[in-house]
Amino acid sequence: MGSKQYTCPVEATLDKIGGKWKVLILWHLHPSIHRSGELKRLIPGITQKMLTQQLRELEQDGLITRKIYAEVPPRVEYALTGRGRTLEPVLNLLCQWGTEHVLKTRK
Q1: Is there a contact between 40 and 78 (Cβ–Cβ < 8 Å)?
Q2: How far apart are CA 6 and CA 43, in angstroms?
Q3: How far apart are the first and last CA of the chain?
Q4: In terms of residue numbers, what domain contains 74?
Q5: Using N-to-C axis directions, what is the helix angle for 22-29 and 88-98, rounded to 10°?
Q6: Which of 12, 58, 87, 105 could crosslink 6 through cysteines, CB 3.0-4.6 Å?
């Protein structure tokens, strides 16, 4: 399988974290580890199918890890990888921008 060709770095970044849900998943994982059910509660509107799909893609791209515990019922936890943690400054800037430019305009 060949590597995808990008026309600019922003395109490459959006290919990995773009869309409605991936950034929200990464945002909730950046301070702590979460289980799938916790993420579903933290992200209103996301379906279980979409959450599962987005988690798989983020895992395939090396941004999150999936740890399965040998328990009954099985417990699965998701966390940022080292590569995923490199997105924390970007996530913090997105949060700051939203606070300064969107939330303030509601007042």
Answers
A1: no
A2: 30
A3: 51
A4: 10-95
A5: 110
A6: 12
Label residue 106 by pLDDT band (50, 70, 90): low
Q: What is the pLDDT of residue 103?
A: 72
Separation of alpha carbons 58 and 8, rounded Å: 21
Distance CA 70, CA 61 (A): 25
Q: Tokens 């490199």, residue?
A: 86
Domain count, the chain: 1
Torsions phi, psi for 69 (to 5 deg): -100, 135
Query: Of 24, 25, 20, 27, which is closest to residue 36 (Cα–Cα)?
Result: 25
Helix H, strand E, coil C: the string for the chain is: CCCCCCCCHHHHHHHHHCCCCHHHHHHHHCCCCEEHHHHHHHCCCCCHHHHHHHHHHHHHCCCEEEEEECCCCCEEEEEECHHHHCCHHHHHHHHHHHHHHHHHHHC
What the block records as the tokens of 54 is 């987005």
Token digits of residue 60: 């395939």
